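Figure 2 data, in text form.
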Amino acid sequence: MDIGTAKPTAEQRAAVPHHLIDIVDPNEPYSLALFLRQARTVIADIHSRGRLPILVGGTGQYVWGLIEGWQVPEVPPAPELRAELEARAAAEGGEALYAELRAVDPQAADRIDPHNIRRVIRALEVFAVSGETSSSNPRRVAPNWDTMLVGLRLDRADLYSRVDRRVDQMLEMGWVDEVKALLERGYAPELSSMSGLGYRELCQHIQDGTTLEDAADAAKRRIRRFARQQHAWFREIDERIAWHNADEAGVEAAATQVRDWAED
């Protein structure tokens, strides 16, 4: 899953070491707890070599979980419960499960796309297995390293324009062929990975006859909605984040700020 995830190119990865890429197959489960364990191991290794780790992205829960030192228990998948929830989604509609999630964990419901049934089911699964919501305040152990947080902001019109251009570029790069190859290898559309941004829409184009234009438009709308939801995690009023405009001058100012901080 290279194009649709905007994975760094081979040239970029040769120029700068990247970590936690290509670590699971599309049909393997992944979780916040597993990420935290792996990321902490990587950061410790980078520090041991006298280097500066840079965390880029991404999913707000994963970013803050790492930075704030969340201690998250690993909740394994519950296949029988998951199958039951999937059957209910098919019979009652995904809206029913989403309403149930909102009742038990409204904060998670605010962050999860109502149409991403896999994530809705996983949140309900975690609640049923552990008795805790994904929004519960986990125990925190402050990391033994300092952090500088940099945020780049765009006004909404520019952000949406970039989203649309990026989807068009990925299609030109062969995104449809990538999804076809995944399906041919047996990775079903129902997998959590295949319900990712854009992948689900292209599956519908390939398998259900949705036109490519309609699939691309649906992917763009969904990605724009995801971008809006990021503000729930990364707020401009958060004094921990140094915000800069995502233009040439703003990016240079951010780079200067990071260099000064790292050399201090």
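Caption note: The first strand starts at residue 70 and ends at 71.
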